[in-house]
Amino acid sequence: MVVPGAESFCAFFPAILVAGLASEVAAVASVSYSKLLDPVSDGINLMESLLVGAFGPATGDQRECYKRIHAYCWGLHTLVMDVITALGIENVATRPTVLERFNALNHPIQTMLDNLAAGFDGRLGDEQSAVISLMRDSAISIEHMMSNLWQYSLLENGMIIFEDQEFDGAALINRLRTQLRIKTRLELGRRFYVLGDEQRLGYAFGEIARNVRQHAGVDFVQVAGHSFGYRADLLIYDRGCGFPDERGSALEPFWQAKPESGGLGLGLYIARRFIEGCGGSIRISSRLDKGTLVKVSLPIFP
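Above: the chain sequence. Below: its structure as tokens.
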């Protein structure tokens, strides 16, 4: 469906959300380091439980795999403690070896967990399968947190150079829809070409999609895009649970609408910094039990 003009484009979203776009930003001063450390500690404990047969008997190959994962988890624990106590998360990217060490530990863990889940080392019982599935999800979550920490540190230390590129805006919309992994209703105007860093903007839209998918609590999202002269507006709207955000804190580092949901609260902040670094802007308006509207404006080639 083609959006004929700005009037119908704005009417596509409830006025109550557009009127509530936050103008004041509050900084959040601290982050819970336990969100980095707890999943690793849980992995160590779960592997120890598997080794003693708490979730059922294990084959010899499975036990050897459990031992290796246990050792790698301890390595991750040491690395995370180094980050927390010695470096500080804002300085992670100043030590390239941190990411190298992390990948050298976490990637083998994911591979071994995948092999266990596939039954390559023997058939798992139901409880064992549940534990392995939990650990696989945890390993992916830890990898995402480390990726965001790395990007955050690069930004805070001025280590990112934004490239000026011209690319089809459809690439961003496709990235968004792919990452959402839920049904979308799409409304687009004429084709437009974005001016900005395609890689950084792709990362930003991936983080926006992740937040919508994890926190909206819906299986349907509306996405619209329209260009006006030298600017394109992309809007993502859901009629989900929403969240109270009178101070506009959602785009600040370490802020979370649902602290118990995991993560570090860096994704939307990184998205904002990447979008602003490309000459654009992002605003979020949310109302509890009514939904959330995300509006991204980007410079385009006219």
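The radius of gyration is 22 Å.
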